[in-house]
Automatic annotation (TrEMBL):
Species of origin: Paramecium pentaurelia
Protein's membrane topology: Multi-pass membrane protein
Keywords: Membrane, Transmembrane, Transmembrane helix, Transport
Protein name: Major facilitator superfamily (MFS) profile domain-containing protein
Pfam family, any one: MFS_1
Organism superkingdom: Eukaryota
Amino acid sequence: MNFIIVINNLEMNKYNYQYRWNMLTFCIWIPMGNYYNYDIPTSLYNSFKSYLSPILSDNQFEFYYGLLFSLTSFVNIFTPFISGKLRDQYGNRIALFVLLFLVSLGQFIFIQGFIHYNLYYIIIGRILISIGIEPCGAIQTSLLSQYFKFDHIALVVGLCELFASFGTISVMYFAPKLAAQYNLIFAIQSGSFAIAMSVVCCIITIVYDINAEYVQQENSIQNVEISKQIIKQENFPFIYWMIIIYNMLLFGSLLTFSNFSVGILTERWYTDNESAEEMAGKMMAIMWGISSFLTPVFGFLIDKYKNRSIFNICASCLGFLGLVQLWYYAPFLAINLLGISYAIMCASVWSSIVYIIDETNLGTGYAYLLSSCNFLLSILPLSISLIKIRTASFFISVMMLAVLIFITVLLGIYIYFLDNQENNILDGKILSTNKSYEQLEQDEI
């Protein structure tokens, strides 16, 4: 292994930008509108089934509901590489705005599909929403890492996840109420207001980022921020691929559970309850509420104490325990464990990528992360729907997800030993200095 000194260039060195917290204030609102729209099908599972009953039988609905998630995930195996290339060539600002435009267009088409009972519009709209939302978090992390990589990156990732969860909590709570009080179309259209807010926040964030670039160019004397770490010379080291597999299994399993959560909770706990959808939605709102509030907390702890590999193991253990006991005990404790598991995973895994992958390949690095997740998500939802049709129960599906998460427990232990061998590469080795590049080179010699 060799010592490699990475020095941020003028465009990327925005660590000392005095208004970075102001920019963050608007940037973290972007995912709220995104995830409000993304989780509309999950929150309105029973309402969708009832609304589409004139054209779909119950078994047909189960098939198409699973297909909706599997097909969008299959498409997103490939599209993150396009958005990653867009980011690497044209920058974070253009990539972020293009992705939000796709979400807005997809939401419009999705609504038209329900108005006209057109399954093709529903699927196409859902695909566009998913294409826009999936890489958006990665582009946000890439943008904010220019400002916070050296001190608060895990906390920043946690704050972004907090506001993304606000979107999920909002739709889980309000969408069923709107559908019951007004109608399904009105509940779906509420997503248009959410995405409009995200677009406004995106524009303000871009303005701040442009101003930061201008300020940096105006400053003739700048501190040089040094990221000094012991890493392998290849662009994508072996531990990166282990993190990819780990994230694919854990994130994919938790998100698949979330996609079917209303159906699972209704079958197991609220079968004879007329307000089953609303009750299940509130339960999932608790899960995402716990996750949203704890992600910044775990981000702060990770920034302060490091040891991401140990946090990964904890996330897997909690996720496994949560899914196993969901079927056998009252769901409240299980939902809490799943929320904590998701919070730790988001704060730990996503923030570690900026240390493993070089800045110039960050878009591609996150593309692999998203693509792998979508590969699993293209298989699991349709599989669960087919199992549900065959067995008339979600029990086998829940146990299958628990097994996948147990595999991440073993993989997390393996990553822990790999990380120790690599001198804790997942946490990065940061050193700030005012020395010139020539002085640093001389020190290395």
